[in-house]
Amino acid sequence: MDPAETLWRALFSHRWWFVAALVVGALVRASKEDTILPVDVPRRYRALLALCLGQASGVLEHFLAGASWRDAALGGLVSALVAVLGHEWVVERLLAGPLRGGDVPLPSALMRRLPLRRDDAGPGPNG
User: Fold this and answer.
1) Which pLDDT belongs to residue 25?
2) N or C: which end of the chain has fewer CB within 10 A?
3) CA separation for the pair 86, 18 (Å, rounded)
4) 86-109 per-residue burial string, b: 16 or more CB within 10 A, e: under 16
5) If 0-12 CB within 10 Å is exposed, 13-18 middle and 19+ buried, where does residue 75 land?
6) Residue 54's closest CA among 29, 27, 78?
7) End-to-end CA distance of the chain, in Å?
8) CA-to-CA distance for 88 and 102, rounded, in angstroms?
């Protein structure tokens, strides 16, 4: 199934936790040091950032969609967990080989050119 079709189905069936999980995952990905955005969240705080963004999505669901606080908080927690675990299971483990860096690529307009690592620079003067 096409990812765009999956997103549209989630939107039209009001599965907000799924949509929020995609948005949370994208925002956490955009907070890494290789983007041009002025935010650089250290690795150890990214799960906490995902949890906070997930709970913010729950608050939005409460006020905009009229969900109860219990359902909104649970939806926020689920969306944060799906974003974090989805990154760990899918990106880090299943796609680590094809991506070689373990990160989902962003559009090149959002990416910053990082200096080459020592092992990426090619052979040194001694071969």
Assistant:
1) 87
2) C
3) 11
4) ebeeebeeeeeeeeeeeeeebeee
5) buried
6) 78
7) 47
8) 9
Place of tokens 């799924």: 18
How is residue 81 annotated by DSSP? H
C-alpha 101/C-alpha 2 separation (Å) is 24
Q: Which of 93, 116, 91 is nearest to 28 (CA)?
A: 91
The token pair that represents 83 in the structure block: 């974003």
Which stretch of 24-28, 34-38, 56-60, 91-95 has the lowest confidence by average pLDDT?
91-95
Residue 66 tokens, joined: 């009229």
**For residue range 45-85, what is the model confidence (pLDDT) as tens digits?**
989 999 999 999 999 989 988 889 999 999 999 999 998 88
Residue with tokens 């990426």: 120
